[in-house]
C-alpha cells in the first residue's frame, strides 16, 4: 500500500478551493449563495475523533504485542490495512471538502461581512477548514501507527500492514 503524500492533499485542497471560490462568485452573481451547513465542521470533527481514537487504540495494542505483555490482544493485519485505507480515504475527502469550504470562506471574506448571515457562514466555513485539517492530521497519524518496520528482505521498500 502506498503512503499518502501531503503534496497530493495540498493540491486537492488548493484545486477545490479555487474552483469553489470561482463557483461562489458565479453563483452569487446570479442569486443567493447556498449556505454552509452548521453540521459541516461537526461531522468533520467527529470523523477526526474517530480516526484519532482508532489510531490510539491500534497503537496501544501494537505496543502491547511488541512488548509481549501477557493477555495482549494482537492486531489482525487485515484490520490494520482496513484502518489505513479508511484513513487515507478520509484524508482525501477531507482535503476536498476543506478546500470547498475554504474557497467559499475566502469569497465570503472578500465580498464583505456586513450582513450577519454572511459572517456566520464565513465562521462555519473556517471551522470546516480547521476540522478538515484535523481529519488529515488524524489520518496521517493512523497511517504512521499502522506502518510496518522496513523489511530488509525486499530491498528496503516501504512495507505496510
Task: Please tell me about this protein's structure.
The structure is a single chain. The termini are close together. The radius of gyration is 20 Å and the shape is elongated. It contains 4 helices and no strands. The C terminus is likely disordered. By secondary structure, the protein is mainly α.
Short synopsis of the structure:
By secondary structure, the chain is mostly helical. 73% of the residues lie in helices and 0% in strands. α2 packs antiparallel against α3 and α2 (39-66) runs parallel beside α4 (116-145).
Can you give keywords for this protein?
mainly alpha, elongated, 161 residues
Q: What is the helix fraction of residues, given as a range?
A: over 70%
Give the structural class.
mainly alpha
Span of the ends, CA to CA: 8 Å
Q: Mind summarizing the main beta sheet?
A: none
Estimated radius of gyration: 20 Å
Per DSSP, the total helix count is 4
Low-confidence stretches: 151-159
Shape: elongated
Approximately how much beta-strand content do the residues carry? under 5%
> How many β-strands, per DSSP?
0
Q: What order do the SSEs take from the amino end to the carboxyl end, as H and E? A: HHHH
The average pLDDT value, as a whole number, equals 86
